[in-house]
Structure formats: C-alpha cells, structure tokens
Amino acid sequence: MTAFNAVRFKVKPGRDREFLDAHKNVAHDWKGLRHVNMVKTGEHNYCIIAEWDSMDALAAARPHMIATLNSFRDTLDDLGNGLGVTDPVAGPVVLELK
Q1: Which of 19, 21, 66, 82 has the most other CB atoms within 10 Å of its CB?
Q2: What domain range is 42 assigned to?
Q3: Measured distance CA(79)–CA(58) in Å, rounded
Q4: What is the pTM for the complete model shown?
Q5: Is residue 88 part of a domain?
Q6: From CA 97, how far away is CA 89, in angstroms rounded?
C-alpha cells in the first residue's frame, strides 16, 4: 500500500539557498521512493512531501533521511512548542481522491 511522509521545517534567515541545495545534492534513488516535492509554505517555512511504495520502504529509508537531515540541521530554526527543528508525519494512503 502506498505511503506518504511530510516534514515541516523553518529555515534560519539567510540560509534558504543552503537548505534547498542540501536537498538537491541528495541521491534520491532510495529503494521504494516514488516522488518528492519541496513546498514553500511561508517566509523561511518549507514542507517536504514524499510518496513511497509502502510503509516498509519508508521505514527502511529512515537512516538515509536522518543522515540527510544531519547534513543541513544547522540551517534550521526550532519550530517551537517542543517540536525541535522538524515536524514529521507519515502513514499509508487510506483513500485516493484523484
């Protein structure tokens, strides 16, 4: 069953290009990864959304995702409310609408 994950980020002022470049430089040939988009949701705010073959594929890629995060972690601001620098969510598709 197809799965998605989404992660919110807040980038430190002046570091947006570095943040985006860090994602461009990642080899996104991870097994089970179908598609990835970075969305700008506000001033210095972004959300990455990825589609996976399955929750198992997503889970298997977590070490790669963590290593990628570690490569640009210093570009991120704390999101507040005890979240830290990321706000990740993931789950299987339960209803396809289009």
Answers
A1: 19
A2: 3-77
A3: 24
A4: 0.91
A5: no
A6: 20
